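Title: Request for sanity check on 3-dehydroquinate synthase prediction

Description:
We are preparing a figure and want to confirm that the structure record we downloaded matches what your pipeline produces today. Could someone re-run it with the sequence below and paste the raw structure tokens into this thread? We only need the token string, no images.
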Amino acid sequence: MDRQIEKTFNVPFRHRLLFTRGVFNPENQLLADLLHAYRPGVSVKTLFVLDSGVQKAHPGLENAIQTYCGKYPEQMKCADVLVVPGGESAKNSEGPTNRVLKAIENHGICRHSVVVAIGGGAVIDMAGYAAAIAHRGVQLIRIPTTVLAQNDAAVGVKNGINFYGKKNFLGTFAVPQAIINDRDFLETLEDRDWIAGSAEAVKVALIKDAPFFEFLEREAQALRRRDPGPMQELIFRCAELHMEHIAGGGDPFEAGSSRPLDFGHWSAHKLEHLTGYGLRHGEAVALGMALDVRYSHRLGMLEPRETQRILDLLTNLGFDLHLPDLGPDGSQNLLQGLEEFREHLGGVLTITLLEGIGRKRDVHEIDRDIMAAAIAEMQPGKTANKAS
């Protein structure tokens, strides 16, 4: 007779996002306290992975990290500060990942050590992936330094790199020990990165929170001129909504096919690839949302007034809603992103569309002719910020 052993077990996770200023100011004990709480009475060996763009914008940061570690020798021991390329290049080859893995090996980073990733979303993703596959999982602390990373990319439990020309083809799910948002890093961002990060806030407002969308409408000009108060509220509420979904949505590791937090992303991922990652992720998401909003409108799901409000908000925040020139076959190439998205999700194609601001609906089929017409509305030379 065939025999079988089966057990069910649960593993609790604690997902923490902490807000501060001057995380490496020696008087700020937050990071030291986190490491002490992780392993009381032990000086935790810590490998810092630093985005080269952040290093350039903050030329004294490496010394500040070393000084900070020196201030708290009972809590932490700095193994190294490894500088890696910033931007999507961090994820587009195995080189940066292998450098992090080599540093983990060279410095004897073990499962009781910690990797601290400091940078934009791409570096956070890459370093997190390296940490997750080393020794089957080294502890990770994320210190995101862009709007997009602080309100979205670093808030999730995913890590990954691009492979075979596909976004996040290699990756893991791993809950970080903590995420630390330091608002001071945002002060040195280029305007383009400041603006791009707000796309994910619009996304989560559209699918989950109409009052948050109204806040973004009211504060659009203040956000565009870089007022720190509204931006901190944007980051906090956006991150809060993401974390509520992860913790309470019933599918933190995305075993199902529905991905409401990927609204606008099926075409965004393809646009990034088609443009050689010349688009920022947030810029691609804004275009992807505008496209799916137009498609929802053409299906009769979304009223004209709400369609125009969404397009106006994206424009007022500073996004150009014209698609980049993708060549004569651009529309068909972009539509290939639907199958790639289905493959990435697994199972049946599931695309999130809008029935209203704050109200979503998942669909499992896309009318390619209607979507192609929506794409045509956003081509260069068209009035891309007006509903039709």
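Thanks, this matches our download. The chain has a mean pLDDT of 93.
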